[in-house]
Amino acid sequence: MKILLISYFFPPSTSVGGLRALSFKQYLPEDGIDVVILTSGTKQDIKQNFLENTNHSNIYYCKETKLRELGYKTKILPVLELFSLDHLFFFPDIYFKWIKSAFKVGNEVIKKEKPDIIYATGPPFSSFKAAYKLSKKNDIPLVLEYRDPWLGNPYTTPPCKSITKRISKLEKRILTHSRLLITVGNEYAEFIAEKLEIKKSNFKIVHNGFFPDIPYKNTIKKNENIFTISFFGSFYSFQKPIFEEFIKGLRLMIEEKELKSSEIKLQYAGSVSRSVINKMIAKGKIETYFNDMGFLSREKLNEEIQKSNLVFLTVPKGTEYMLQTKIYNYLVGNSHIMLIGESGAMAKLCDNCQQKFTELESDKDKIASRLSKLYEDWRKNRLEYGCNKESFEEYNRRNLALKLGKIIKTTFKKTDK
Asked: To bridge 17 with a disulfide, which of 9, 185, 227, 288 should be the other Cys (CB 3.0-4.6 Å)?
């Protein structure tokens, strides 16, 4: 069996979509499913280390769109996004120009590779539209994978009812044509199914996870001389209120205990605009306690997670269904996790893996009180870390890819014969 996997992102991009597509490319062949990749970028990308152990012969590149980069460079896009006006100009999303190129190259790839299935992963949902067009023209079954909801996604909100209706009409048309629906968690399935007015059972669940080349480790020593709190990864505007509340709580705790910067620190690594995060740090008056580590490699990131005494995640209202991908790194990294905000999918995942974690509301006084207790536990060598190693093996990306392989084979038995 052979699938054409359409993913706008692919290494060297380290985005969630890129790494997920890579894991399927690497591990599905073990289950007898060959994977042909249709993505954006240039052939020079294959020189990156991510692809060292990957078959390059059937990775096909289309012309990528530069609209997003140009929009941020000119500062036009942030303004449009602020007022939810980007959908007025870019439909179904800012990657829409990729559809034409993906359709053209995709038809050539189909003639050459003769795939049995077209598998599209989104966002961006321009990939869904390109896959839908290719599926209809070539009469090949379509599989849709939702890594996030389309409508109802807090990252992107349509500006008016007419745009919402337009997106809904397109989504339902593509959905009706598809043969199989995949998503990355039970709560995602519930959320998306409710928005689409379909049954949750229509979705098959294949989580995100961690690559097996980063095994569970507890050999790197935790920081013993300075209580280290870490936040890693992307940062979005709807997370800002919780992050600001955390900073206030941290400041209260520092003042109450009269701690010096040699005794406690907050560190960050990721792709957040430094002007945004620096303003919050300055407003909270914790500059001397803050360490900006810039952007870390995958290996260095996992090392810093293991050294940290506390790693935290924000769970804003309306995002309870989300499983932020970094939580899988935290599970592998022998962590103590703090979840701040609403209770939801990430707390359930921690429970499932017997992960040591702390869950609390977004309130500066409660945050200060809990941080104080965690600090004392650490100081007295009582702070607990880690999870059940056997339980989290379920989220090994190799195991997840093989799970997907079984789902595909079961769904498309006739195609496989």
From this structure: 9
